[in-house]
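Repro:
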Amino acid sequence: MAETSTNPGSRKSLSKKAGVALVWFATIALMLGLSVRITVRDHMPILSIVFYATPLTLLFVASVVACIGWCVYRKWKSGISFLVLSIALGCWAFNHDYVNRAVDSEAADLRILFWNPAHGVMTGLESTADTAHNYDADIIAIVEGSANGESDTQTWKQAFPGYSTSDLRSGMILLARGEVHDVDVYPLPGRGHAFITSVTLHDELIRLVVVDLDPNLFQSRHKSIRKLISLINDMPTPPDFILGDFNTPADSVAMDMLRGQYTNAFEEHGSGYVPTWPMPIPVLQLDHIWIGPRITGLKCEAGWTLQSDHRPLLLHATINHNQRTE
């Protein structure tokens, strides 16, 4: 029987071509992503996809690949250029994705938890509810927390004795140690929703807007945020918390529309690694808690769990009792 053999020279040639293709891909992705990030960000519909797909951590990885690759292929000037760029991007990514601005949280009036527990590696609603319970939050907002409607509502209620709960609507459920009031559900562009409600806790009426935006990359975040702001502006009293799965990074142009009147809790009061998605290696901050002027944030932190592809967010905060809502 004739024996077949692979030509070592041919294999080496294919490996070299694949390596060169990888280095060029990293180089082009890096330059395109960096150019978009420092200019238009996600202001333009098509380029917004590039912006979302190239967070700083991935740009840093691409720069390291390009640096090593061009050095391997003896393109020393390119290699050194990408080495310098790698150092700069590494510093930028570290400063962007790690914060330490928390203060002592012992004086907190309340702890509020937001979590999207869908699509986890570890499944089971009872286990998910137990994980949420471990955060010992006064108010818990869950989106995409249902697969079976009313039966899942009962599971959440049983897991939180002593809490009042909202009905499970469009996958959102609210649990609180105080009284949960009616929840109004409003559609946002695409498959998004905004849930407007309030909770009476420690004799304070706390107003919340819980958000779950459409994850479709081709769905304009600008339209969704503008619609959300329109709903907020129609409220008789501004909300104390706007929290949810925005499916939009905090450095998006669209999120600038919330700044000024509201504060991103993790940016101003965060502790630790900022990105919340996708687990187990998160690179994007898609989940946010925004706080109104009546609230003082103390510490915002994100947990680590494989029970979801999103990290849960926990905020320790105090209420300015001199600004009571009616």
